[in-house]
Task: structure prediction
Amino acid sequence: MKVIILAGGFGTRISEESQFKPKPMVELGGMPILWHIMKLYGHYGFNDFVICAGYKQHVIKEYFADYFLHTSDITFDFSQGRNDMIVHKNTAEPWRVTVVDTGLSTMTGGRVRRVRDYIGGEPFLLTYGDGVADLDLAKLVAFHRSHGKLVTLSAYNAGQRFGILDVGPQGGVQAFREKVQGDGSLINIGYMVCQPEFIDYIDGDEAVLERAPLEQAARNGQLMAYKHTGFWQCMDTVREKEMLEKMWKEGNAPWRVWKS
Result:
């Protein structure tokens, strides 16, 4: 099952960092938040990634081009008049990573539609490139397979500034609506599972994933919510980055479910 990661936006709310790199490449503990997200998926055996790049997409491509080099112990031997490279310790991940330039100004839904040829006709995982969680992805996928609908999203009670979901007793998402003061309802934190037919709900580059495509799926009874009660945090602002960085440095990062 492929993992589609949306990593093409401008990251304007964290412009202090994203001025020089895409937001998913902003680092926590010396590694991009994109790496942290991929490590979570890899922990559950999902190692085939399609990165929907856009803004400063070359930074993502160059990162993975040099990943093996940067994560290995290497001797460069010029003594015989050659440039010999001896790898002593390889700590590279078992990942297959496809980075696709999905356009500079393409919306989130449009980016998914643009990578359709890389997905094939199989169900796929889909998430944003700026949020970490201790979500049990095996249980998420099992829930998706159990109900037979087109889309499952992960729902979380963040109590913050996001638009929220009306979720029925069986987990069906009935509507999206704006948050009101004191509202403790669930929000969409991404970490989705989608049938390939869901892409037909996306019209083109201007389609915002969270608007028409998911709203239409909800109206058609094809959108389900998997309720996550553990940890989740997005990294929209410098303050949120600093909070996550502090948790990582103190060894209190709940999303670090993988072995060192």
Observations:
- The first helix runs from residue 15 to 18.
- The radius of gyration is 19 Å.
